[in-house]
Amino acid sequence: MNSQSDLQLIDEALQGATHAFDELVRRYQDRLVHSLEHCLGSRDDALDAAQQAFTLAWRKLSSFRRQSSFYSWLYRIARNAAVSSLRKQQLPSGSLEQMNEVAGFEPTDRHGDSAPDHAMQQEENIRLVRQALQQIPEEFRSPLVLKEIDGFSYEQIAEVLDIPLGTVRSRIFRARQELIERLTRADNQ
Looking at residue 31, which CATH number applies to its domain? Predict the structure, then answer.
């Protein structure tokens, strides 16, 4: 069944074959949770949002227009569910700092420096990047995470976030500027 395309599996699922949709879940659940974890800062929140997204995708599968990839459509559903959930919690924008796991990536030590203080410095740098990233407004952070962490193209980001390509470029540019400013301020303290 792994050799079937997403569209073939969607067609089967629309005809009632739940195993076909199960295959789509297996294909994309890890990638979706990983992407959401970067945006939400919490694995538990990412798992909840992914589960909600798959449930909604199953219910709305007939509305999939096939103009984008299934994953892009699914990610948009998941992102909207996550944003709605955050709004319901009525988190003030300053409390995003509480989600300190957003960056979710570990730089590799290509120089082989194994000194304990080097590892501690790396951990501190990662903490500072995550903290700075959390302080960036979500509308700018999401495109940056999709680009730099998830590896989406500008076109894919525009499709997933349902915003114009120029807006994607400007938001990523602004997010990078804000991240640099925040990291520079943190470094000077």
Answer: 1.10.1740.10
Specify the number of domains making up the chain. Answer: 2
pTM to 2 decimal places: 0.59
41: left (phi over 0), alpha (psi -120 to 50) or beta: left
3/87 same-domain check: yes
For 117-173, write each residue's pLDDT tens digit.
767 777 777 777 777 887 888 889 888 888 887 788 898 888 888 899 999 999 999
Structure tokens at 65: 């227009």
Q: Which of 13, 146, 26, 135 is nearest to 76 (CA)?
A: 146
In a domain, 26, yes or no: yes
Q: Report pLDDT digits (tens) over 43-98.
A: 888 888 899 999 999 999 999 988 888 998 998 898 887 777 666 654 444 333 33
- How many C-beta atoms surround the C-beta of residue 63 within 10 A? 8
CA-based radius of gyration for the chain: 19
CA distance linking residue 31 with residue 21, whole number of Å: 16
Cβ-contact 49, 57 below 8 angstroms: no
Domain that holds residue 156: 112-189
Q: How far apart are CA 73 and CA 114, in angstroms?
A: 43
